[in-house]
Amino acid sequence: MKTNAMMLVAGALMLGPAGCYSGMSSLDGAESDGPDGNGPAGEDSAESGESGDGGETDEDPDTGPGAEGACVDVGPRMLRRLSSIQMRNTLVSIFGDEGVPDGQVLTDPVVEGFKVDAREAVIRDLGAQQVMQYAETVADWAVEEKLAQIVPCQTTDAACRDQIVRELGAKFHREPLDDTMAAAYADLLAAEPVFEDGVRQLVAGLMQSPYFLYRRELGDADGDDHFVLTGYELASNLSYSLTGGPPDDALLALAADGSLRDDDVLVAEVTRLVQSAGGQDNLAAFVESWLEVDDLPSRAKTEEPGVVFDAEVRHDMLAETTALFQHVYAEGGPVEELYTAEYSFLNQRLGQFYGIPGASSDQLQRVELPAEGPGGRAVGLLGHGSVLARHALVDNSSPVARGVMVRRRLLCQELPDPPADVDTNLEPIPEGVTNRERYEQHRTDPVCAACHNMIDPVGYAFEHYDEFGLWRELEGGQPVDASGSLDGVSTDAAPLDGLDSLGQALAETEEASECFTHYMTYYTYGVNGCHPGAIVADAGGEEATLQSILNAIVLSPHFRERVLGE
Amino acid sequence: MRRLGRRNFVGGMGAAALFSPFISLLKPGRAEAAVGSAKYLLVFHTTGTNIDLWHPAGSTNDQIMFSEMLAPLEPLREDLVIIEGLDSKGTASNHAAPGGLTGQTYGAAKISLDQFVGDKLEEQGVSTPFSSLIFGGESSQEQSTFFRDGQALSPLFKPSSAYSTVFSGISGGGGEPDAVSELRLARRQSILDTVTDQLDTLSGKLGSEERHKLELHADSIRELEQRLTLGSSGGGEACPEIPQPADSSESLHNCALLADMAATAFGCDLTRVAGIEFGNHQATQVGIPEIGTGDWHQFMHSNQMAELTGVERFICEQFVAVAEKLKTLPAPDGSGSIYDQTLMIWTRGMGDSIGHSGTNMRFVLAGGAGGYLNQTANGRYLQGGGDAHQRVLFNCCEAMGISDFTGFGSTDASAGPREPLSSIGS
């Protein structure tokens, strides 16, 4: 650990949101998300065509950085509402059928670019009604289509009722019911003279239950105002956080006998769950949201003769990024590998798009990348079409959009928005003028320069790649100048020339691995609960790998313990 | 077909209108209708625009000269009050800035106009199944338009789901035997009782901050129970049987359907306040032949002004369509239409969206508004002179019979007087 990130945080506190160079203020680690949780969430780093960048920040300007946290500080007892996809996955699992009716009754607030926020996801206003109606629809379907599969008996006596309630209830609650709870559900069944009506009521009731709708992080008391999550709570949190779905039988068995509380068992389960289909999907969802490329399929691009940037190519680009991330994770690679991998995963179509040989089928395969240049490709994620095309304008590259993405998503540095009274519109681009010359306006105006001196020199390193992510020698009729610099990080300011050099420079900063850890931690916890530096240290410091980072996130007290809270 | 229920609609233009105390405030065209006391607020919300292309150049206090973007509003000319040049005072200067309908910025415990007015009408004794309804937006994006207690609210964005929530969620539809609806109510009630008990149990284990989440859930159930009881006792107007709408892949088309649904909901008194958010600040994709293909946000930033103009005109057309529909719906009291008693307002979450600035905010107001608006035959155009845009939001409150704005809008000195603009109300 080369620098003390806490000092940077303190610096940010003093500078406030008005200054650039405010350091790693997104890394404060404290639970600082504002009461809205709806400040501009960097959903779209920047792509203002004529305006350079209007600027969007990752955090509410008001709330900014808070006090530092560390992983020994655990959060309050809480409930996390299922996301809409988690709810669907749970129902599919319970009924063993993809045909369960779709509801889309829950909305998932986007916070920090992810849809996992534990505080913002609530049921309010018309929410209870929407859940009720959806529950009734599913209950009708279940009785019509699945009755024999979901009930162990079909008589109207108390013993059968109890059996049904406990069996079905445990699936919806993801833990065994206690007697009081079982009796309440049994009453719903008993009130109905017709058996099917009773099951319909029971399913509708279970689906509206908070024990179905929320994951619980309450724990068993372990001393004053301190709680240790139960095996079942751990099982649910592990499963939903790592696979987006409910715990399977194996996990529930470890919950039942208490062994899931054991570190080794927990880590073994992390490994198993990440390897599952749901776990791989979850890694994909993370990397796409982290890099803000998930909406690439719907981004507008001006058509250009000879460039086929269709739905298939866009899909291939996302698949490439997902595959590299999953590969580095599976191989036990470090964060640096994401920025310096000299290989990628291409199919024939994407290979042809890039002009890179070696892929011969529809399936992605590992391809060694020729060195950056004509017919070559930059190393690591930054050279992926997904990143390059998503963080660009409709008809040109954008050094600002790309520079902002690096600062906010890869280094977790806060950038304030342009002052309200600044006209951020750039002059239309005259013939023969390069993008770079156009953006130089930022550097001459002192109002703009404070931030754009941080943003633009990073973005210039991308300039060999156009708005489709294709290599170019010329821009605006002139040779591309991809020189720039990366400063404002713990390492010495690095001169840049081309994207390879930026990838290398990022790999050498400790901010890059801490920032990755920040987003991974938030993605897992649904709150900002740990200083990423502490997680990285637990994960082996400079030896940390993607795997060891996720293991450290799960092993930390923040994942397994609770206090009562305010 | 629509049943008028207990409320009598006095058709035609009655002589009673001659005695209306509001008559002097009304334009000649509307002077014959006695305006009832029920008040409605319909809000359109969009992000900012290209302010130069939008600007109705040459307009005066007594005459609007429509720009190409605004031209589809022509049919409403005599009812329009257009105002520009208002300052959001820093509350609407960025993506997802929350100031448009709240006058407040990030972090504040803000409430949006629709929610505030809905609450106030309830305090005034208005009892409709929904105190307000919010529609539209983009499900894939952070919400940034409608707020309560500082928390962003999720509008109903799918027409099919909005339909089932608003029109068929409570009752099973017309003509159902009482016994059937009573049995359904009893079943629902027993489940909700069980759920409420469970929420209580869980709440007891949480600190107050986390408990708040479950309180919202419990409130949501309580409000649902009230609607269920109201629905089963035959309260409220009977709603027309409208077909379940099909969801479109086009967000703007969905918003058009939702706006129409809002008008229908007014017609059968399900609510008096509705808001429709067209698109969201960055994620709205468009693929409509008469507009073009692409990203609304990119239209602004990539100088695709033909497309941006297309979007603006499309929303103008929906604004007019809703107005025309409201004109066909008889008012529950008075002798005119619901339109005569509705304030329609088109607000924005930014001013100049190309420059991401909120220093030049604009509003389009229309509707009979119970005679509140200071209208002229050729349309009224006003310049805000840098006044806080929230003052127009106060005008909206005033039009709804609300004079106490406590709890709404910014109290910062920089926002200026917490008073409506005198030029808008009559």
Structural features, described:
With 566 residues, chain A is mainly alpha-helical. Chain A has a domain at 79-105 and 122-217: serine acetyltransferase, domain 1 (Orthogonal Bundle). Chain A has 25 helices and 11 strands. In chain A, a hairpin with a 4-residue loop joins strand 3 (220-221) and strand 4. In chain A, helix 6 (179-190) packs across helix 7 (195-208). The radius of gyration of chain A is 26 Å and the shape is elongated. The relative contact order of chain A is 0.14. Chain B is an alpha/beta fold and 426 residues long. Chain B folds into 2 domains: 15-166 and 243-415, Alkaline Phosphatase, subunit A (3-Layer(aba) Sandwich), CATH 3.40.720; 168-238. Helices cover 32% and strands 12% of the residues of chain B. Chain B has 10 helices and 11 strands. Chain B has helices spanning 51-54, 99-102, 113-123, 159-166, 178-203, 208-232, 251-267, 296-301, 305-328, 390-399; strands spanning 40-46, 81-86, 133-136, 147-148, 151-152, 273-277, 285-288, 292-295, 342-348, 361-366, 380-383. In chain B, the strands form 3 sheets. In chain B, strands 3-6-1-9-10-2-11 form a 7-stranded mixed β-sheet, with helices on both faces. In chain B, a hairpin with a 2-residue loop joins strand 4 (147-148) and strand 5. In chain B, helix 5 (178-203) runs antiparallel to helix 6 and helix 7 packs parallel to helix 9. The two termini of chain B are 37 Å apart. Mean pLDDT of chain B is 87; it is low at 1-31. Chains A and B meet through strand 1, helix 3, helix 6 and helix 7 of A and strand 5, helix 4, helix 5, helix 6 and strand 8 of B.
